[in-house]
Structure formats: C-alpha cells, structure tokens
Amino acid sequence: MIESCPKNELKILQEGKFNEVDKSDPEKAINILQDRIRFLEEIIDNVNATIYINDILKPESVWANKMAFAMFGATISEMNEGSLSWYKKHYHPDDFEIIAHSTDSLQQDTADKYNGIYRTRKSPDDTWHTHFGSGKVFRK
Questions:
Q1: Which one of 39, 61, 123, 133 is CB 3.0 to 4.6 Å from 5, fit for a cystine?
Q2: pLDDT value for 50
Q3: d(Cα 137, Cα 112) in Å, to the nearest integer?
C-alpha cells in the first residue's frame, strides 16, 4: 500500500485537480507539484502492470515503468539498441503478425487503441509468458 500521500492530496487527486496549486508562492507551488509527481511515480512504478511509451513512427521505446524491466529483463536503451533483433529474441515468433498488424494500423491513423495477447520471454532460454496488452495512442 502506498502511504506517502496525505489524505487531502488524495481528495485533490479524486477531484481531478492534481495540477492545481496556489500560485501566490511559486516556490511552494513547485514543491507541492514535485511531491505530487513523486507520488504518481510511486503509483506507476508499483502498479501490477507494465506501462511503457513507444514512438510508433520511429519506432522506438521512449519510457517504461519498473514493471517493464521485470517483464523484459532489459532497460529501454537496451531494447532500442537491439532494435528489431531484440524483439525477435523476446517476442514469440507466432505473435509477430499480431504486433505488426497493430503497429501498421496505429502508424496509418486507422486505429487509436489496440488490444492483443502475446508471449514474451526475458532470454532465449527462458519460458514464454502470456500477456494481455492494451494500448492507447496519444497524438500531438
């Protein structure tokens, strides 16, 4: 259980006002926002889900929570260094068509979310683990 956020802060989060602060004291406002960000980071890193951000146009991974490292056994930079060859070692070959179809749809603006079941492993001698993936595209 995450206990680093005071109850009044949780109420602010529930009300959707997490980024609102009193701006009359800018230094205090920055400190409050930094504390709130740390709290949200703690949630993101401890939720039982792999959360990651990919730039599907390049393609490359941009950011991931700690669960992604637990799932893949690699950092974002290690994943990007290996490019496609890294993914071929860690994703089941039978699932590549599903991933390729999703990526194509997302890149061609024909979809803004995806769901799929796929298998991964940390190393070539590891066993396959089945995952349900659900993603949302955010466009700038």
A1: 39
A2: 85
A3: 5
